[in-house]
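Rotation project, supervised by the postdoc (A.L.). Task for the rotation student: set up a whole-complex structure prediction and record inputs and outputs verbatim in this book. Inputs entered:
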Amino acid sequence: MIELAADTLDTLRQVSTATITAQLIKIAGMRSRSPRGIAPLDRKRARFVGPAVTLRYAPMREDLDGRASTVHPDNPTRQAIETAPPGSVLVIDMGGSIGGGAIGDILAARLIFRGIAGIVADGAMRDVGPLAEMTMPIHCRGSAPPPSSGALLAVGTGEAIGCGGALVEPGDIVCADEDGAVIIPRHLADKVAIDGLEQELIEVFIKARVLAGEPIDGFYPATARTKAEYQAWITAGRPAIVRP
Amino acid sequence: MIELAADTLDTLRQVSTATITAQLIKIAGMRSRSPRGIAPLDRKRARFVGPAVTLRYAPMREDLDGRASTVHPDNPTRQAIETAPPGSVLVIDMGGSIGGGAIGDILAARLIFRGIAGIVADGAMRDVGPLAEMTMPIHCRGSAPPPSSGALLAVGTGEAIGCGGALVEPGDIVCADEDGAVIIPRHLADKVAIDGLEQELIEVFIKARVLAGEPIDGFYPATARTKAEYQAWITAGRPAIVRP
Amino acid sequence: MIELAADTLDTLRQVSTATITAQLIKIAGMRSRSPRGIAPLDRKRARFVGPAVTLRYAPMREDLDGRASTVHPDNPTRQAIETAPPGSVLVIDMGGSIGGGAIGDILAARLIFRGIAGIVADGAMRDVGPLAEMTMPIHCRGSAPPPSSGALLAVGTGEAIGCGGALVEPGDIVCADEDGAVIIPRHLADKVAIDGLEQELIEVFIKARVLAGEPIDGFYPATARTKAEYQAWITAGRPAIVRP
Amino acid sequence: MIELAADTLDTLRQVSTATITAQLIKIAGMRSRSPRGIAPLDRKRARFVGPAVTLRYAPMREDLDGRASTVHPDNPTRQAIETAPPGSVLVIDMGGSIGGGAIGDILAARLIFRGIAGIVADGAMRDVGPLAEMTMPIHCRGSAPPPSSGALLAVGTGEAIGCGGALVEPGDIVCADEDGAVIIPRHLADKVAIDGLEQELIEVFIKARVLAGEPIDGFYPATARTKAEYQAWITAGRPAIVRP
Amino acid sequence: MIELAADTLDTLRQVSTATITAQLIKIAGMRSRSPRGIAPLDRKRARFVGPAVTLRYAPMREDLDGRASTVHPDNPTRQAIETAPPGSVLVIDMGGSIGGGAIGDILAARLIFRGIAGIVADGAMRDVGPLAEMTMPIHCRGSAPPPSSGALLAVGTGEAIGCGGALVEPGDIVCADEDGAVIIPRHLADKVAIDGLEQELIEVFIKARVLAGEPIDGFYPATARTKAEYQAWITAGRPAIVRP
Amino acid sequence: MIELAADTLDTLRQVSTATITAQLIKIAGMRSRSPRGIAPLDRKRARFVGPAVTLRYAPMREDLDGRASTVHPDNPTRQAIETAPPGSVLVIDMGGSIGGGAIGDILAARLIFRGIAGIVADGAMRDVGPLAEMTMPIHCRGSAPPPSSGALLAVGTGEAIGCGGALVEPGDIVCADEDGAVIIPRHLADKVAIDGLEQELIEVFIKARVLAGEPIDGFYPATARTKAEYQAWITAGRPAIVRP
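Outputs recorded:
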């Protein structure tokens, strides 16, 4: 797996998903990297950055409740939960189904204990009442009472998967915030982090000026004048980005 | 209508919809009992338990505004509202349409006065600003300004209906919480209550332990060891379940 | 463009979208005037009234990132933002696409500076974290990180458009609240305002009585008795409508 | 049930569904009378006219295969099949579900024997291979192998139902052809037949002329000149409408 | 992989998918075994029976056209095509996407040469003009001009997959006809074949009688009388089932 | 408008939409150029090539039947029909609505008389019975009896529009065949024609060989060996492409 620069993940924590998706279009013409139809369960606890661990569900067959149980050591959900490195993000391909919730409060408790950064799933969660009291940010398609085995069967982990129309490969860098999530191909993460932070800074500068009445004409999107004024502003002391 | 055990409804109030849907799969192989695509209007006021009173809408015809009005004594919406027993739950088949809101704040005021426990509808509500100030929990597909007569005509009450892909018969027991709703066939309600409470208790125990670092391996889903330790914990004094 | 009565917009600010949609059915048989599938980003900041300025997007072509940029003076998004009169509402036809967010925090800052009352879009917004800290109410289909150019290209402003299944013409009066939005054809706005306020007042009266236990039988929908009692109540001192 | 004029059904057999839907807008402002998303299984065997007999399905519950069987005398599917008058049309509310086929070849054989004119269903059929060899026209949402009990349970007949977004009441007149189906409210059938045939005749005349090169300017939609020339053409001998 | 009885595949060729889905409900309570939303490209060339070879697509990433090419020996599409045993059925998980056609006429030519029995895909095909001239039956979601790489990337073969909401495991028996397809779990194939053929025979008998005017009352679904008369009919010489 | 090479349209008539979409990805990274969810009304009459004339519909408002009529000289449908050059293709943005058919048999008769090559619409047609007897190929989303004014209002012609998710600008080259349609940006048409024909020829050669048993290994997609053998085959006499 490609090695990332030491500060890439930390840098990405200062960059919004809005900026990252813009960079992926600019750098690589990639328009498909944000899972669609997925939102944070709680907009106030929406942010994380980390490498993807993938988990894939297929439709359930009615006689496989046994295989669906995480009691079996080779159950893919269990494998993903128990082997995902601390700081990683669990990305789940549920094929868009909302027929059952993939993760409930007990598995979430285990994920939190193991240091998982967050979850992105193109399906539902369950126990979202208790989950709202817990610390892990989750992006998904809402809630459903039934267990995942009501409609889905875990069939693989560590694979390339789809999630909300985006290809996700293990190790891709997943960033999430209030807007949703974005999957950065691992080989682009260093560049997206550097260019993204630069864009983020300049937009902080622009927004402050626009709020103060600066017209966007000749100023936003950034022109030569914008960049010059931005450089002066930076030189005067680069502000720390504290995402609100 | 089948008589329920005296404490079944009270017991079910201590059991989450997540647990109930799991019990319905385990006891009866039923995977279709939770209406899909429906969520509480307000996750902080999402819970109720009660027997279903059903109401069915069909698409509107443009010349039937008169028949759509609840002014007529035989209007099904009016009949359902005025005859539903205190403690019952109004379950509305809107065919998934979000073209109009079934219940606004005045009808909700009447339902509250009559002691209705809550609403489950596979369509929209209206006046959700005022409804947010009122006490009745509502699970539905969001809000829409138009009256139901903008798109729908009430055509029946007291019938078997569909709601979000689940069959609902009058008298079925409807449970709802933050995750959504579940429809327990009336003849299964006593057993689901008893087995569900048992599952709820053991999961409270398991979650506490997992949060404290207990690995799920050999512990969750519950093994013989889990059950033995749970029994010891229960013997040491059964905790009251106070759903947070 | 048809001149409105001087107090029409102010009157409409006292009328809910629920009431307005009911009036449009009653006055003109119009059932299609509320965009479907659109909700306020924040139910606590959902209300506005103003004339529509329209903006239309078509699907993006992969080589048109240049044309998509608001840097060009004839970019329709820029034109709409810079020429919309203070107090107007930006209504955006995104064809239902959630592949990119039409407006982010910098353009929102500019719209706020220019005095725009609000946005209605049948697509996504971006930067919704920062937008939540800003003052402009927005009704849309949720959030998406990518820029609109990820999936969409602005192609026109000042045109008749569709938005969530409703025809919107420049100058139509857009009203929005917690339930969603409604588009009043400009030539009906004066009448809808007057009749809508009357309906709003009578419903305030009815709701107060129903909450106090008045049965709806012979009282709601309003009968001759209701109207007589309402007149007495009004005569006793017309209450100011302060929408909660 | 309202009595129809003696020749209304025969007249309607000469009028296309396109013309009938146009008449329903013109006469009664009704835009919702054609079930959406429904097509003939075979465009070459698509036409029928007759009064509606309604049948309603709700979602299946997994323990009700017994009740789903047509072996029971009070099974609604069986009741509808055995009591529908010759010449009537079976209209089925399947809630849009394609999880199972409502009618297979044996029930179709019985319907044919009993003289049913056709079927309109907002769901799937099964045995469409054999059905293609049989004489009954069917409009539906395609085919699905499973029996209706795979996903649906018949719960009522003789009710007001929805079908593809159109209200259908028993006795409404159902017309179907290559374009799809339309449901004429029974009280409008006589007028729609008379006006529809007139429109059909004038459009036969117009189409012949347009094919021969007559510009539509001042001619179509019909102007005074068109009508005068049409009258002359009629006077010269009214053509029989033989729908191709 | 479980060994099948020698004549199971041949027996299944005499049984319709309608009958097989009914048997799967009866034998095993399985209601999820027929992919939804999939139809034969050509109803006149719709039938096949064979064991499943699975192929899985995920969403495309814009820089992976190279990996998408079947020129690479480890491309999953190429692997599936080149290693599928004669008589097997290619079942493709496209996640429901119609953004590109999985198989065009050249790959189809290769599949035909290699003796593949047919294709079931929950996505589109391309080159359907030429494909209509070729011999292989295909069940899918219609046609789309773009190559699969327009929207999809092959990521695996020989896995458990989903197809139209049905779990498909390699070796499952796939049956297809005019109605659509059904996936028989391999361990049930022998029993489904035997019971299915019995049901097929009795329904041939029933249908002949119903067409001749026999009422369904007490006759269909099969009663003791039906079975006795059927046995007499069989004894008089079992008819060959020649599916029309 | 950019001038095309003299033989570009004729060359494109020899190239399939499958090949054209592949060329657009290869030449320009364009994956969005084929309208989705659209199919020929009749696969046997599906082909045409020509420059786009655009027509745009918005949702209908219930009081605008007058404006919807093509009797008005400035009605956009009428304008498009009467001013489209012979050989052009009418591309209609209906926003995906199937609530009414855009073109019926009389307007089709006029379009045929005026020499229009075909229609592509992301909505429904009506009078498809008579249309099946006429000569114009139509790609759309099926049929619906109501007039377009049942759900839609023509609001513009000669604009950039969307159709099935593809941007269409007036003058873009529209190609259609059995698979569907593709919109070539006008400035790429000459190159797509030349490269597309080359690809078409080599694929004719490859397919003939694969049908004869040539393995795809090292042969397809085309390798150096393939190209050499192809050149020899061409040198031996280039075959005329007669698309079947």
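Student's summary: The two ends of chain F are 33 Å apart (CA to CA).
Supervisor addendum: The longest helix of chain F spans residues 189-211.
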